[in-house]
Amino acid sequence: MPKRGIAQIFISIDGKTVLSEARKIKTKLITEIDNQNLSDQIKVFETGSISSINQGVIVGVYPTGEMYRNMTEQDIEEFIEERFIKGRPYKKLLISEKLQSEMDLVDIDLRETQYFGRIVLSNCGRINPEDIEEYIGVNGYEALGIALKEKTPEEVIKIVKDSGLQGRGGAGFPTGLKWSFAAQEKESPKYVICNADEGEPGTFKDRLIMEGDPHKILEGMAICAYAIGANIGYIYIRGEYQLSIQRLQKAIKDAEKLGFLGQNIFDTDFDFEVKIKIGAGSYICGEETALLNSMEGFRGEPRLKPPFPAKLGFLSKPTNVNNVETLANIAPIILNGAEWFKKFGTESSPGTKVYTILGHVKRPGLIEVPMGFTLREIIYNYAGGMSSGEFKMAQIGGTAGDILSIELLDVSLDYLSLQMEGHNLGSGAILVMNEKVSVVDFLKCCMKFFIHESCGRCSVCRIGAKQLYESFSRLEKKEAYFDELKNIEELAEGLKLTAFCPLGQSIASPVLSALKYFRAELEEGIDPKKVHEPVTRETNDKMLNFS
Ligand SMILES: Cc1cc2nc3c(=O)[nH]c(=O)nc-3n(C[C@H](O)[C@H](O)[C@H](O)COP(=O)(O)O)c2cc1C
Ligand code: SF4
Q1: Which domain holds residue 251?
Q2: Across-strand partners of 431?
Q3: Which of 62, 229, 484, 542 is the most exposed place for a label (fewest CB within 10 A)?
Q4: Residue 179 is part of a domain; what is its CATH number?
Q5: Is 541 within a domain?
Q6: Same structural domain for residues 365 and 304?
Q7: Is residue 271 domain-shared with residue 136, that is, in the same domain?
Q8: Ligand 2: residues within 6 Å at CB?
Q9: Considering only CA atoms, which residue is closest to atom 12 of ligand 1?
Q10: What ranges in 229-329 are assigned the alpha helix state H?
Q11: Among 287, 314, 427, 496, which is best to mutate for testing ligand 1, by the most ligand atoms less than 8 A from CB?
């Protein structure tokens, strides 16, 4: 048989495909390659998630770059026969070039314009996340070397400030500025914490970043630690993220072995170690001060701010908390410079954003696009358009996010533009809904989540979420009071003003945005004749019975 050159087959293994027996498919691939005496010509390796979440197990072939979806064990023999013996694509499962491009699977070099390409996900689906050599092969840990050998901590902070990077955990706070606060503190030790709690429904971008490129996060943490003067880092990660935990643990061990973590990194006097703390799965523990309580072994309840963690953080020491995606931007920024980073995105929000798209779209999944792309572009260019029906609304930023109507399809998705419309970008989840989804029903689901996740510390949140749920239940049954919407609005405004932490405040987001864009639909649930009974001891007790 003629030699066809060395090929590499990569198989995408993430927290989801691992459940579709991706590892068995990998074993079968290796066995079949062996059976065909092709082991010296074809190498099989694992990558993290490639992008889309409804394409089953994705297998790619390098150097040609074609990809196959929904691969099963039963396809392997035929795939190897067609692709590597007969030398033609395995058409049955081939993803067309057009679809690859729409699915954001094509890397930066193949795109025609600088506005496409990945920063955070550049290695996801391209390298084996469990092999540190592969990370080094794509300039991994070079940025850390540059920072330690050629820059002072102040210079590193200046580069991050100049890049305009804003925290990707939801609030969009400028990262360089945050680092400068922790750097100014004299107390020691200081800590760097990577917030990998990711409890927002519909958000799984951080998981896929960790599964696909764990070293990039470690490198970002080490650069941050050098910049602020910390020697210890923690990754606070939710317990359900088993594959992420395994890959991060391996990455930490490998980085320690090669001297990228540990003592005297790059022969300097900088020491840095990283530990993993596993969370117990409460949404509030993603809030940075509740996270600190949880790490210290206390109940996961938020703390009063100020003081901010930069001053009084983990164990009352200066602490910098950043989101996974924020930290994954750091090494590319140090390597390529602030000006390079600013070429992506908008003037006020440079860089890219990783989104998870779900709901009534043809291709739900993970994409990374420059800040400033519109909802329309994301839904119709990247997610393949609506899977059924017409676009009605999208909730952005998870359950704590705003509901946007069709009027906002063309608004630029970046922190400032959304703020000017009275909305927030949030964590990066986009839930798309068609005309069949009832706003009232959807709001009921949101309130159910908040009832479950309220930590219970303050009554406006604990009881408010329940009362809103009951209001939406009455609207659903068309039995709402004549002034129900007014009461809902007042309660939501009250939550915004008086809830102790952003969780309680954010209950107002879906409610007030729905009132803004879908008031007429909500009004349909009102019975104009229904008035409140006078409040008696009995009715009051009934109201407070939350069973
Ligand atoms: C209820 C709640 C949950 C949160 N969950 C997360 C989370 O899972 N991951 C995260 O990075 N930030 C989360 N945040 C935001 C954090 O408090 C904090 O702002 C963020 O980790 C800072 O990182 P950044 O500056 O890189 O965005 C949450 C905030 C709230 C109010
Ligand atoms: S607003 Fe809600 S989540 Fe926040 S402290 Fe109060 S009860 Fe807890």
Answers
A1: 132-340
A2: 358, 395
A3: 542
A4: 3.40.50.11540
A5: no
A6: no
A7: yes
A8: 284, 302, 454-458, 461-462, 499-501, 503-504
A9: 169
A10: 242-257, 288-295, 324-328
A11: 287
**Closest by CA position to 179, among listed 198, 200, 160, 152:** 160
Going by alpha carbons, the residue nearest to atom 25 of ligand 1 is 167
* CATH code of residue 455: 1.20.1440.230
Within 6 A (CB) of ligand 1 lie 167-171, 173, 178, 195, 197-199, 283-284, 286-288, 321-323, 326, 502-503
How many domains is the chain partitioned into structurally?
A: 4
Question: Which among 371, 401, 434 is the end of a domain?
Answer: 434
3-state secondary structure of 351: coil
Whether 528 is covered by a domain: the verdict is: no
What 8-state DSSP symbol labels residue 379? I
Q: 27 in a domain, yes or no?
A: yes
**Is the domain of 323 the same as that of 225?**
yes
Q: Each residue's pLDDT tens digit in the chain (547 positions)?
A: 334 557 889 888 877 777 668 889 999 999 999 999 999 899 898 888 766 556 788 898 888 878 898 899 999 999 999 999 988 989 999 887 766 666 555 443 333 333 346 899 988 888 899 999 999 999 999 999 999 999 999 999 999 999 999 999 998 999 999 999 999 999 999 999 999 999 888 889 999 999 999 999 999 999 999 999 999 999 999 999 999 999 999 999 999 999 999 999 999 999 999 999 999 879 999 999 999 999 999 999 999 999 999 999 999 999 999 999 999 999 999 999 999 999 999 999 999 999 999 999 988 888 888 999 999 999 998 888 999 999 999 999 999 999 999 999 999 999 999 999 999 998 889 999 999 999 999 999 999 999 999 999 999 999 999 999 999 999 999 999 999 999 999 999 999 999 999 999 999 999 999 999 999 999 999 988 888 877 788 777 777 665 4
In angstroms, what CA-CA distances link 102 with 208, 209, 358, 381?
Answer: 19, 20, 16, 6
Exposure string of 165-186, with b = 16+ CB inside 10 Å and e = fewer, is: bbbbbbebeebbebbbebbebe
Closest ligand 2 atom to the C-alpha of 495?
1
Do the domain assignments include residue 126?
no
The first and second tokens of residue 298, run together, are: 């206390």
Same domain as 330, residue 358: no
Same domain, residue pair 78 and 30 = yes
Phi and psi at 121, nearest 5°, equal -95, 20
